[in-house]
């Protein structure tokens, strides 16, 4: 590829103009001359700049002050043949496929890939993790390691993929990434086919008084637990395959559309990635109502603690779909037809650093070898706007990852919901707030023509608004009374931190703490299990109603299986303000991404996004849920007893949970605000080319 210079400056992209008949001259704003024709730099600028571009006039004025257009050297443009930009595979490029050889066509397949990635990694995994633990005898820390394998793989691959893929054939990197993503889904479903059939004993009633069935405590680890290595391999492949999507995919879109339309295209792409988890929860939850051994009759029901649903079907379907989507992506050219007209327009919005190192980075050959890697990293490290945007993104990613993980748990504790009800309620908030906020953010950047400082100012406004809405955690819903935990068995006041599940009314039952199955009486008081409520048997006409409960202070002495409902009057306020927190958090995602693309030179965009994702994952999405989980565990009132070992938390103190989430949330939101404010100041004061 030839390199063209104007004075002592180089173009940041290869100045090739496509002369295909499929791109009319009127649309490009210039007439294509024959191969080898010459044109002056100023005439080229006047041709490629749109009259609607607000940056065109100031740019030409500043260039005119530096040197005369008549005295400037001429630039030679080599017209590329239509076959260079054709959509196809090797020599096979039928005419019928060229209708998809547009930014909108590429966006369609890229959205399909991001949808499948979100549905698999953020939807199916979170939905089926409990079923996998039950089926393969995994502990919580083992399933946590499976989930984190995705981020570990992404961090290991981001530098390599973003650096070499940024200067390579991006659609091929993307296509191979989607193929690896599909292979990861197929590997994740593999244990179902090689581990044998799932066999269980009959689920007997063990929770009533006078005594529970004895439970054997065994420390031995099942051989099934070794299948966690296969699950980790599947997640590792997921992380490898998804790496190009949010680095090379974003820059490829940005390079092939007008800069003012770029935020809209990227917003649609990210919205598809957000809708994917919603579909994953819906499809995955539906598949869990089907028995894991499809076609086999069983006496178990989905309500049974031994039930395992068909967790593997979603991964099998997603894997095959990813393999199919990868094929058209592999057929796209390195540059879409007509994309060269945006070269100067993008360069006008790029923050140019006035030193020799930046001139080196502007070289089209820069970044193609490992020798350029240290300089590439150094250029990013000395860019304060980029560093501050990375730190702000890491703090926001901490909250997004933490709220995605523990948001359903917060709703479950505050509103006394089941796990499925809490997940559904949280999903109803996240889909419109997250997806709508992402789309709206890209639309606003395009609608108001926001550039550098204006984008960072908008991000700061969104962060401050969500910070104020985070004050919602000042309020909370009171705990539902639970005998022996939050209240005494005789409705007396229970001292805080004092637990006593045994009382005179159930002392003769010899209840086991391993069997947690809450029941609720007519006074809206909850009990640890039917045995702890002193219930002797179930109602023959209604198996979910227990009779003869000696601890229930009513004439009938009945209790119903399940948690008591919460009559919290603050529920609407909590839901509305949580919605505001989510929508304003996602509202700044696309503007912040656009600011990142505009504050680095053209040759470093893919690599900059890769470095940014590494910072976001290592400082945000990986440690964030761990920190939030540790803080939330401090609010636990009642822990699970697994043969003398502490398990998961059954009951949280709602006031303490809200207080701890408020402190941590305000700390991270405050850090994001402090990172955005200096970035705004630097963005205003730094010299820019054009805007």
Quick structural gist:
It contains 21 helices and 13 strands. It is an alpha+beta fold and 691 residues long. A hairpin with a 5-residue loop joins strand 7 (519-520) and strand 8 (526-527).
Question: Can you tell me about this structure?
Answer:
The radius of gyration is 30 Å and the shape is globular. Residues 1-83, 351-357 and 684-691 have low confidence and may be disordered. Strands 8-7-11-10-9 form a 5-stranded antiparallel sheet, with no helix packed on it. A two-stranded antiparallel ribbon has the order 1-2. The chain is an alpha+beta fold and 691 residues long. The longest helix has 34 residues, at 103-136. The protein has helices at residues 25-28, 41-48, 56-66, 103-136, 140-166, 170-194, 228-242, 248-255, 262-287, 312-330, 343-349, 356-361, 373-381, 384-415, 419-447, 452-469, 571-587, 589-598, 605-621, 623-633, 654-685; strands spanning 5-6, 9-10, 16-18, 38-39, 75-76, 78-80, 519-520, 526-527, 537-539, 542-547, 559-561, 636-642, 645-652. It folds into 3 domains: 95-198 and 222-349, Up-down Bundle (Growth Hormone, Chain: A); 369-479 and 569-690, Growth Hormone, Chain: A (Up-down Bundle), CATH 1.20.1250; 481-564, no CATH class. It is found in: Cell membrane.
